[in-house]
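G., the chain you wanted modeled:
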Amino acid sequence: MQSMEFLKAWRETARKWQEQVPAPVDLPSDSAVQGALLAGEPLITLVQPVIEPSLFAAVLADLAGLFASQRLEGRQFAAALRDSGAAERVGLATDLLEGRGASAWSLRHKVDDDLVTTLAGLALQPFMSRFARAVAAGAPLAMWRRTACPVCGSAADVCRIDPDNLRFLHCPQCGTQWEHHRMTCAVCDSDDVKKVNILTLEAMEPWRVEVCDSCGGYIKTLDQRHGGHLAMPKVDLYLEDARTIQLDLIAEQEGYRRGGRAQ
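Predicted structure as tokens:
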């Protein structure tokens, strides 16, 4: 659904929006942060991100405008937002943020509800990134070794092995990266080395796919020990995930799935 041109434009736009998003005011104490991490609870259980519906509506409209050049449905969505009054746009944003969804609005404006939900997820990125930047500052993330994000609890999308041979998982929602054990599955955390294998494609190096026969899941891994521009500290792993979709196809052809087998 999403082209690289669109995603690149959105990531740049999201970084600009991030600077306009307020950070949480009442941050948890150091002891509360440490206690949550030790208990295996992401920091979002201690403090919630600040997401004003009016600002979220503005971000969503900006995102829809970017996507309008991609597909007819995108143009329909952008036009429907423009035609909605300010109060209706804020109402839509509130429904999305509070988990009620957008089905009523989508039906009224003849817009694909799945598209609205997908773009709403993307529109959360600047809010969650700002939240993570504030909440994780100084947090002892080194004590966290779980497969879910220590800040927002989302599942990792990709991982990287840095030039020092340390493995980090990456959160697609808030952008947090945290260290994880090298010889374990990043989906189910299995440490059975006989069950975890690697798929490679020469044309896609230094990327590879780590697959697990315990859970049937996989995760793409960037090996930064190879150097080059992908070894730069600020490489956008979210964009790289989209750029390396060929590796997803290979893993799926072998019977593996993101997130593992359906439970």
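The mean pLDDT is 93.

Shout if anything looks off.
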